[in-house]
């Protein structure tokens, strides 16, 4: 299965070892102490500095400055640290592409989807899974990066055609590559040894027929992604609007919640220091 995607997977930068070591830790069987987590992170001084800076942002304001990784890990907890590690390493890994139109668009959608998904999870009483949906949403289209890196002009043309004509992006990708980015997303994350949840989110997001045992979380990520595209990035597509309405009915959200996400959430999000830090990491404008 992996052989089919190798030509595209090799166009992705290598994820730093410090990130993969942390991301592979099973969250339901944490047999690693905070001290060991600190030892993994501090191998990368640049990562350490950025995590401390974010930990000291207004979102995590404390009466005294957070000066050590140990304090940051204790205050933020494992799952928040895991998200920060991925955010920082992703921004570093793709730094040389930061100014391209594709990457600006890609990361804007991914970061917004992550924050929408986390907030929706909290509102759906899924606090324990809120960081998982955050990461799942951030990674759910990573296959698009592999396509773009393989031939930037070709993929940009496909993306532009999908946006201007309303033709389904996955349909155009299949015609051009023999697969769509969802297939590639799942293969990449599986190749990186990510937990099954993230692989399933990548493969089945924005689908009406979700077969994964993680269906509830995949629906949250899908609703978040659709809300971002339709109501923040203003990509109008009747089929996707209908899909949003269908998937929304499978959440525990109310109509008043939908109205909030459609009209007010983005304004509140722009005031969030953590979101502002993410924008700065990826060089994304509001």
Q: In terms of structural class, how would the helical and strand content be classed?
A: mainly alpha
Biggest beta-sheet profile = none
**Rg over C-alpha atoms, rounded to the nearest angstrom:** 18 Å
Terminal-residue CA separation: 39 Å
Beta strand count: 0
Question: Which shape, going by the Cα principal axes?
Answer: globular
Instruction: Name the average pLDDT.
Output: 85
CATH class categorisation = Mainly Alpha
Give the SSE map.
Elements: H1 2-9, H2 17-23, H3 34-41, H4 45-55, H5 69-76, H6 78-93, H7 101-123, H8 130-139, H9 142-150, H10 152-165, H11 169-177, H12 181-191, H13 196-204, H14 215-232, H15 238-248, H16 255-263, H17 265-269, H18 273-282
Helix pairs in contact: 1-12, 2-6, 3-5, 4-6, 5-6, 6-8, 7-8, 7-14, 7-18, 8-13, 8-14, 9-10, 9-12, 10-11, 12-13, 14-15
Question: What are its keywords?
Answer:
286 residues; 18 helices; 0% strand
How would you concisely characterize the structure shown here?
The protein is mostly helical and 286 residues long.
Explain what this protein looks like in three dimensions.
By secondary structure, the chain is mainly α. The protein has one domain: Hypothetical protein af1432, CATH 1.10.3210. The protein is built from 18 helices and no strands. It is globular and about 50 Å long. The termini are far apart. The model has no long low-confidence stretch (mean pLDDT 85).
């Amino acid at each position: 299965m992996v052989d089919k995607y190798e030509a595209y997977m090799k166009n992705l930068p290598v994820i730093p070892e410090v990130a993969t070591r942390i991301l592979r830790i099973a969250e339901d069987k944490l047999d690693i102490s905070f001290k060991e987590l600190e030892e993994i992170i501090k191998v990368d001084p640049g990562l350490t500095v950025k995590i401390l800076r974010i930990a000291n942002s207004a979102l995590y304001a404390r009466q005294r400055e957070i000066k050590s990784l140990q304090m940051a890990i204790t205050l933020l907890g494992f799952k928040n640290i895991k998200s920060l590690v991925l955010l920082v390493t992703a921004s570093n890994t793709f730094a040389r592409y930061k100014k391209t139109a594709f990457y600006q668009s890609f990361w804007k959608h991914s970061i917004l989807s992550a924050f929408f998904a986390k907030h929706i999870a909290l509102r759906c009483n899924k606090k324990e899974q809120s960081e998982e949906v955050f990461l799942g949403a951030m990674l759910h289209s990573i296959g698009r990066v592999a396509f773009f890196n393989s031939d930037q002009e070709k993929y940009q043309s496909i993306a532009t055609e999908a946006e201007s004509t309303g033709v389904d992006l996955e349909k155009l990708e299949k015609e051009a590559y023999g697969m769509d980015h969802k297939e590639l997303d799942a293969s990449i994350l599986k190749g990186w040894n990510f937990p099954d949840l993230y692989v399933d989110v990548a493969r089945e997001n924005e689908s009406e027929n979700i077969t994964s045992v993680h269906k509830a979380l995949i629906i949250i990520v899908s609703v978040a992604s659709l809300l971002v595209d339709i109501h923040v990035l203003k990509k109008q597509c009747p089929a996707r609007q209908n899909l949003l309405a269908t998937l929304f009915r499978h959440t525990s959200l109310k109509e008043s919640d939908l109205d909030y996400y459609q009209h007010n959430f983005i304004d509140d999000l722009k005031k969030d220091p953590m979101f502002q830090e993410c924008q700065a990491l990826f060089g994304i404008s509001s």
